């Protein structure tokens, strides 16, 4: 069901609705799929590390992992962005600094530490299904905070994704009892 939901999100690019859309691109969608694949791989790595080192330091692990993308991102920025004015970062707005603080601390360190600790305690098969909600939260946030319109394909993707989460999280409550023989 989740794969069908993802297919609906992809169909949004194949058969877009007239007058709606344009907020994302096929490249952006492909990059999101790549990021999701890397996140899935990191979940598996955390579980493997935990099997060999049950008391590994999650925060230290995240700190070292966070250092890996810095150099490629700096190089990409130097290649793509216009050259910055000297000390241009001093002119950042309060909203800009709050965004950096949120992404650096709340989203990266705090949330990733919580997620990794959940993986250590419960394993990827029980925790990972909740990551299916990320596109739903992203679309809902865009709709509520930015006034974006949701297409029919996106609504179908949301419905299938939420149904998939419900089937994984509530399997006993959603299944019908088999008749006794």
- Mind describing the biggest β-sheet? none
Number of domains: 1
Alpha-carbon distance between the termini? 31 Å
Radius of gyration: 20 Å
Helicity range? over 70%
What is the global morphology? globular
Class by SSE composition: mainly alpha
Strand content: under 5%
Number of helices: 9
List SSEs in N-to-C order: HHHHHHHHH
Low-confidence stretches: none
Residue-averaged pLDDT: 79
The number of strands is: 0
Sum this structure up briefly.
The chain has 181 residues and is mainly alpha-helical. The chain has helices at residues 2-14, 26-52, 58-67, 70-80, 94-122, 124-127, 134-146, 152-169, 171-174.
How would you sum up this structure, described in words?
By secondary structure, the chain is mostly helical. It has one domain. The chain is 71% helix and 0% strand. It has 9 helices and no strands. It has helices spanning 2-14, 26-52, 58-67, 70-80, 94-122, 124-127, 134-146, 152-169, 171-174. Helix 1 (2-14) runs antiparallel to helix 8 and helix 3 packs across helix 5. It is globular, with a radius of gyration of 20 Å. The chain starts with a helix and ends in a 7-residue tail after the last helix. The relative contact order is 0.16. The mean pLDDT is 79.
